[in-house]
Amino acid sequence: MNRTLVIVKPDGVERGLIGEIVGRLEAKNLRLVAAELRTISREVAVGHYAEHEGKPFYDDLVHFITRSAALVMVVEGPDDQTYAVVRTLMGSTNPKEAAPGTIRGDLAIELTENLVHGSDGEESARREIGLFFPGLA
């Protein structure tokens, strides 16, 4: 699959990082297929984080992603592992472990900032695109 879902999470939007993050995606030869600035509903957040339900951090995930606007995007790349390109570009989920040159490594100023989400595989990309952009699934 050459499409994947990317979300600039509320902390990234609140800090005004949309342009920087989209610019980094485009610099990697990824093209925006769809994008919408929206406050993610609790219902969609619950579906998005379904695999984490019952874990101690689940409620915090749902609360965080629904707290304010996020930029939800479908990006397309030239190969069948676009999700892997995006995940590498984002950097480690833990900002203090994220390498320089990655979105989290360069832009996270607090150790709790996550800034972005990218699908972690082809199956999750299909599921997540269908959840956020049903017409593109």
Describe this entry's structure for a reader.
With 137 residues, this protein is α+β, with helices and mostly antiparallel strands. The protein has one domain: Nucleoside diphosphate kinase-like domain (Alpha-Beta Plaits, 2-Layer Sandwich), CATH 3.30.70. The protein is built from seven helices and four strands. Strands 2-3-1-4 form a four-stranded antiparallel beta sheet. It is globular and about 35 Å long. The mean pLDDT is 94.
- Arrangement of strands in the largest sheet: 2-3-1-4
What's the shape?
globular
Q: How much beta, percentage-wise?
A: 15-25%
Number of domains: 1
- Identify the CATH class: Alpha Beta
Reading the helices and strands in chain order gives: EHHEHHEHHEH
Alpha-carbon Rg, integer: 14 Å
**Average pLDDT score:** 94
Number of strands: 4
CA-CA gap between termini = 11 Å
Structural class computed from helices and strand pairing: alpha+beta
What does the secondary structure layout of this molecule look like, with pairings?
Elements: E1 3-8, H1 10-14, H2 18-27, E2 31-38, H3 42-48, H4 58-66, E3 70-76, H5 82-90, H6 103-107, E4 116-118, H7 122-132
Antiparallel strand pairs: 1-3, 1-4, 2-3
Salient structural properties:
globular, 18% strand, 41% helix, 137 residues, 4-stranded antiparallel β-sheet, alpha+beta, single chain, Alpha-Beta Plaits
Describe the structure concisely.
With 137 residues, the chain is an alpha+beta fold. It has helices at residues 10-14, 18-27, 42-48, 58-66, 82-90, 103-107, 122-132; strands spanning 3-8, 31-38, 70-76, 116-118.
